[in-house]
Specification:
It is a single chain. With 98 residues, this protein is of the alpha+beta class. It has a single domain, classed as YggU-like (Conserved Hypothetical Protein Mth637, Chain: A, 2-Layer Sandwich), CATH 3.30.1200.10. The chain is built from 2 helices and 6 strands. Strands 1, 2, 3, 4, 5 and 6 form a 6-stranded mixed sheet that branches. The longest helix has 14 residues. The radius of gyration is 12 Å and the shape is globular. It starts with 6 loop residues before the first strand and ends with a helix.
């Protein structure tokens, strides 16, 4: 599996479905959950007051260099983010991070 299995191209960029693990020992992209068809992301922040969401956005901002926003799943471990920018460039950077 690669990033195209867990993402969709939109007019603004790329939407990516995530499975987030808060309170992890380290932050970063871990791989792909083939059963749920979601990208696994670990963050150190607890799921309180939006801190985990902010760290998810920060992880993707560091990897892609683009503006990132959580668009659904604000209170869930299963989230969707939109990464704004050129879809081909974003997908290649995400594949490299896997």
């Amino acid at each position: 599996m690669d990033i195209s299995d867990v993402s969709r191209r939109t007019g603004r960029g790329v939407e990516v479905d995530l499975q987030v693990s808060p309170r992890s020992s380290r932050s970063g992209i871990e791989g792909i959950d083939t059963w749920r068809k979601r990208l696994i992301v670990r963050v150190k922040a607890p799921p309180l007051e939006g801190r985990a969401n902010e760290e998810v956005e920060e992880v993707f901002r560091e990897v892609t260099g683009c503006k990132v926003q959580v668009v659904s799943g604000h209170t869930s471990r299963q989230k969707t983010v939109i990464i704004e920018g050129d879809a081909d460039s974003v997908c290649s950077k995400l594949n490299a991070a896997l």
